[in-house]
C-alpha cells in the first residue's frame, strides 16, 4: 500500500507526470569535474525537473547545497565477485541518507551480492533501520517488482532491466512488461520508469502506460555516451557503446 505519511506522500506526489534527472559522473568519465553534477542538477531544475537522482554521499551533498529538489540518492560500490553495486549495504544506505537524500535507491534484484546473499534482502533491513526514508527499488523484472512492493518499497522502477545477467543483451525498454507492472501494482507503490529512455517521446509513452514519473540520465547528462551511440550506429555497430555504459568504475 502507498504510504500514508504526509511528508513522504507530499514528496512522492510532487513527482507526478514529471521528469527526474539522473545527475551522475564518475572520475574516469571525460566530463568529470567536481562541480559537474551540480551544474547538471542546476540545468535540470532550470528545465523544470521535479527531482534529482545522484550517486555517492559527496555528490549528493554538493547538489543538495545548491539545488532545492527532492533527491533520490544511491551509492555505487563495486565488488569483484558480484554485479550488485547500487547501494549494496546498510552502511551505504545510511551514508546516502545522512548526505541529505530523501529517497534511497538500491538494487532489489535476485542477483547475489558480495556477501553471498540475494540483493533484495537488504530492502526490509534498510526500511527497519531508516524508517524516515523512502525506498526506491531498482529491479529488472515483474517478479522482482512484486517482491519489492511486498517488502515495503515506496517506489519501483525497472532500472536494472538490461544490466542483469539475464537481460544484459537488451538495449530497449520492455514497455509491455512495465505497463503490466503499472496496471497490477500501481495502486500499491509509485511506479517510475527508468532505463533506456532516450527521447521525450519515449518518456511520454511511459506516462501514458501508467508511470508516475520518468527518470532519465544518460540521454541528458552523459554526452560522451550519447555521442558514442551515434558513433556506434554510424560505424555499423562494430563498437558497442553499451559496454562503456556498463563498465565498473
Write the layout of secondary structure elements.
Elements: H1 6-13, E1 18-22, H2 36-47, E2 51-55, H3 57-66, E3 71-74, H4 90-98, E4 103-107, H5 122-129, E5 134-138, H6 142-150, E6 155-157, H7 175-185, E7 190-194, H8 200-209, E8 213-216, H9 218-221, H10 223-234, H11 241-246
Parallel strand pairs: 1-2, 1-8, 2-3, 3-4, 4-5, 5-6, 6-7, 7-8
Spatial separation of the terminal alpha carbons: 37 Å
Main sheet properties? 8 strands, parallel, barrel
**Strand tally:** 8
**Computed Rg:** 17 Å
- What is the topology, as strand order, of the major beta sheet? 1-2-3-4-5-6-7-8
Overall geometry: globular
Mean pLDDT: 95
Count up the helices.
11
Structural class: alpha/beta
Helix content: 25-40%
Residue stretches low in confidence (pLDDT < 50, at least 5 long) are none
Into which percentage range does the β-strand content fall? 5-15%
Instruction: Give helix and strand order, one letter per element, not per position.
Output: HEHEHEHEHEHEHEHEHHH
